[in-house]
Amino acid sequence: MPDEPLLRLDGVDAFYGKSHALRGVSLEVHAGEIVALLGLNGAGKTTTLRTIMGLLPPRAGTIRLRGRRIDGMPAHRVARLGVGYVPEGRRMFANLTAGENLELAERPGGEWSIQRVFERFPKLRELRGRKAGKLSGGEQEMLAIGRALVGSPALLLIDEPSQGLGPIIVTDVYRTLAELRAGGVAILLVEQNALLALRVAERAYVLDDGRVVYAGAGADLARDRARIGTLMGLPSDELPVS
Length: 242
Ligand SMILES: Nc1ncnc2c1ncn2[C@@H]1O[C@H](COP(=O)(O)OP(=O)(O)OP(=O)(O)O)[C@@H](O)[C@H]1O
Ligand SMILES: [Mg+2]
Hints:
Layout: E1 7-16, E2 19-29, E3 34-39, H1 45-53, E4 60-65, E5 68-69, H2 75-80, E6 83-86, H3 98-105, H4 114-120, H5 122-127, H6 137-149, E7 155-159, H7 167-182, E8 186-190, H8 194-200, E9 203-208, E10 211-217, H9 218-223, H10 225-232
Parallel strand pairs: 3-8, 3-9, 6-7, 7-8
Antiparallel strand pairs: 1-2, 1-4, 4-5, 9-10
Helix pairs in contact: 3-6
Bound molecules: adenosine-5'-triphosphate and magnesium ion (MG).
Residues 45-46, 88, 159 line the site of magnesium ion (MG).
């Protein structure tokens, strides 16, 4: 199929026990785009990423990567097919060094060697001997992105990269995401700060209670001040000007 998206979910349902977390989620990510996945706390954003990654098997629906079914595959196979995951809270091996965290994740012979990651993030080269647990939040986010990159992904799933970071570091992280896209990596970006995500995302989806309630252009969503206000928990006249 010529126009097959890189990633495609169709009617995905997922449960935690009896709790119905995703209800018929359908979405697409095309090669070379950043897609924002937004929604209030508990909407199902993290669950969507975990389900794509194979950490939570869907109970219904299909997930395709370049047309190939990946639902039901374990996470290590999904990773090998080219999906990188940067989880909420970053989840480093705190007692290992930054360099060791990268070595554990590297896919030898892949497009992104550790050396290339160091060239892209000179700061990580400087920090490679430091225990991951001793890094600042921004440094850990860079390491988490670096760790996903050494798996040479075509698609990165990123969960709340700005969480707990100061504004300057957030700008740096977002610049990195835009550069990765320019380098051919597609990104499915989960973010609480909707306006921030919509500054880089071509397209966006909004989840509410496990359902997709908006699918469309990021810029159109950014102009819907009432909806953005709801998403960000702010009256629309108090929203920052984007
Ligand atoms: N491990 C779990 N066990 C049981 N229920 C869970 C678990 N993780 C999430 N849930 C429930 O599934 C639903 C979706 O949660 P999810 O973490 O995907 O939301 P989210 O959109 O990522 O929220 P947040 O913005 O708070 O990170 C919520 O109702 C949540 O309580
Ligand atoms: Mg979450």
